[in-house]
């Protein structure tokens, strides 16, 4: 299985606006109840760091409900959270490709699901 690829999400949370489009599209597609999410926006801050700097971020956090929209991605489509991300802060792909895209100039989170990992 040396040719297997592991897939994930690369989230540039410096550009996330907290619009919740990822949450809503996931919840609707997977018929999740109002208190459960496949991906959940978490707010960090706001608080003063020093000088003119403040910490104020929105971080999309995939939950254990997330399987990267396996039924979509096996057909070559994007996960719904990526498709509906209005700030284009999320990318789907093989972990090797996603890690290569981390440039060190903004804040990234790489998500790889524990269960339901997609392989090709």
- Share of residues in strands: 25-35%
Radius of gyration: 15 Å
Instruction: List the total number of helices.
Output: 4
Overall pLDDT metric: 90
Q: Compute the number of strand runs.
A: 5
Strand order of the largest sheet: 4-1-5
Alpha-carbon distance between the two ends = 10 Å
User: Percent of residues in helical segments?
Assistant: 10-25%
Largest sheet report: 3 strands, antiparallel
Shape: globular
Uncertain residue ranges: 116-120
**Elements, N to C (H/E):** EHEEHHEHE
Assembly type of the chains comes to single chain
Coarse structural class: alpha+beta
Please sum up the structure shown:
The chain has helices spanning 21-29, 70-73, 80-84, 95-101; strands at residues 7-12, 39-50, 53-62, 90-94, 108-111. It has 120 residues and is an alpha+beta fold. Strands 4-1-5 form a three-stranded antiparallel sheet.
């Amino acid at each position: 299985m040396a040719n297997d690829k592991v897939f994930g999400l690369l989230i540039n949370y410096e550009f996330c606006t907290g619009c919740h489009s990822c949450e809503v599209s996931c919840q609707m597609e997977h018929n999740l109840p109002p208190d459960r999410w496949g991906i959940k926006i978490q707010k960090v801050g706001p608080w003063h760091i020093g000088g003119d700097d403040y910490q104020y971020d929105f971080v999309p956090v995939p939950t254990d409900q997330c399987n990267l929209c396996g039924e979509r991605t096996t057909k070559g489509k994007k996960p719904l959270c990526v498709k509906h991300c209005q700030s284009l802060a999320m990318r789907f792909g093989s972990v090797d490709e996603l890690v290569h895209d981390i440039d060190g100039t903004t804040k990234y989170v790489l998500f790889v699901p524990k269960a339901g990992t997609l392989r090709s």
